[in-house]
Write a sequence for this structure.
């Protein structure tokens, strides 16, 4: 983003120092993977910043609502692209390393994604132990990539994601009220704190966005509004947990 970010006072160079401090607390090869992700995010940011119309106090690209709730099949990006699967809605609820390439060269993947039945917005990770500015910038990249795909003619379903409470100010855009949205719950059952934070963010999403329908990826969570949700579970994880053999 800009050398002096709207929300944070640090320069980009100072931001990179903070990121490296965080990365050094991680185990290899996770640390090296995150360095590659940060490099890709920076290349994308430098290429796309200022290209899309922006609005609001933070001047983020604006996503358009989606009112089509006819979603019956979800396929992860890397599998869909490898096997040219276009009769499904594509999602990015996978390891960042499996889709970070779209940030390096979004023009390459736009024609394929345009042919798909739909695409849920990108899901660059925002772990709660990341520095606040890192989570903010990853969220900006997700929103900006989604806006780029919409501008390119993709049937885009907004991906609503959050981390801590300090992310709410940019996680629930008011212009997406009454839209069909997508929410992921994979991994939230790892700890009571993760589950609590997810539930708080989910309730804030309902309150702020009043969604028409929610495409829910992952196991249902107690307290959800199931009447406006359609649930999709990672069938591969389900199959492995059941002890089934892959063919």
């Amino acid at each position: 983003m800009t050398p002096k970010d709207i929300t944070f006072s640090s320069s980009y160079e100072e931001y990179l120092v903070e990121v490296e401090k965080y990365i050094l607390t991680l185990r290899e090869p996770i640390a090296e993977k995150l360095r590659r992700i940060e490099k890709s995010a920076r290349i994308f940011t430098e290429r796309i910043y200022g290209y899309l119309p922006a609005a609001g106090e933070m001047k983020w690209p604006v996503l358009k609502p989606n009112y089509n709730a006819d979603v019956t099949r979800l396929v992860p990006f890397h599998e869909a692209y490898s096997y040219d699967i276009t009769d499904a809605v594509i999602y990015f609820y996978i390891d960042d390393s499996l889709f970070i390439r779209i940030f390096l060269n979004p023009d390459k993947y736009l024609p394929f994604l345009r042919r798909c039945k739909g695409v849920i917005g990108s899901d660059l990770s925002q772990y709660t132990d990341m520095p606040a500015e890192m989570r903010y910038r990853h969220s900006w990249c997700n929103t900006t990539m989604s806006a780029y795909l919409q501008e390119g003619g993709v049937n885009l379903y907004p991906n609503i994601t959050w981390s801590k409470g300090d992310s709410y100010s940019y996680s629930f855009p008011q212009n997406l009220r009454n839209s069909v949205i997508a929410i992921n719950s994979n991994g939230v059952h790892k700890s009571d704190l993760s589950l609590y934070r997810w539930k708080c963010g989910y309730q804030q999403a309902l309150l702020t966005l009043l969604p028409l329908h929610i495409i829910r990826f992952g196991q249902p969570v107690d307290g959800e509004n199931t009447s406006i949700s359609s649930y999709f579970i990672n069938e591969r994880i389900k199959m492995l947990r059941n002890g089934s053999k892959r063919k």
Notes: The chain is about 40% helix and 10% strand. The longest helix spans residues 132-151.
